[in-house]
Amino acid sequence: MWLEIICGIIIYQLFRRFFYGGNDVLDVETSDFNAIFSVANRLEKLCGGKVYVGLNIPDADTGSRKGIDIVLVTKGEAAVISVKNVSGFVSINDDGSWTSEGGRSHRKERIPDPVAEAKNTASVLESYLEQRGVTLPEGYFSYKVIIPNPNFREIYRNFPPEVITYDQWVQLEPEPKGMISGWVKGAFRGGKKEMQDSFHQQLNFILSTAPMWDRFVI
């Protein structure tokens, strides 16, 4: 019996390596914290630039702080990334919220609209940067929701383009010489003109000195 189990695991790993090229993605369920760092490390390989993890930005509207999983900054653009370590069968409700069944908790769970949440987070970050003297080009920040959990199963496949499901996530490949591949360009709104070095340096300086959960910059 154990021999059959071991053979099954080996065949599964070979299958994943053949179809997904052995990418640095989650193979088993992990904590939300580890999932964020796994996504951050892979984004750096895919897109280059700098990845900031765990920003804790003041929100002027609520008087509290807004936690941001990841901010990706490249020469031409930036993206606010929300990592949802969701498992089980997931569907989208009429109000944009998600319902997960059969996940880690083995209970039916309702998740507030992750896309609306990511959009709001990007808005809070933009306001914070403007308060610190950064004039952002219109539409400079995009926002994405990444689902890195291999046990995620989408129902009806009606997820909006801002959501990168697990199947899409594992298929992303870096372009040679650090260029962003066509699919990644589509996922992260690539193709914009590179910003001036002074703007890029200012943005990275402010993000590197912004409040964080901890002093981690990938």
UniProtKB/TrEMBL annotation:
Regions that span the bilayer: none
InterPro entries according to UniProt: NERD
Domain of life according to the entry: Eukaryota
Signal peptide limits: none
Domain NERD residue range list: 31-148
Coiled-coil boundaries: none
Protein name: NERD domain-containing protein
Taxonomic path: Eukaryota, Viridiplantae, Streptophyta, Embryophyta, Tracheophyta
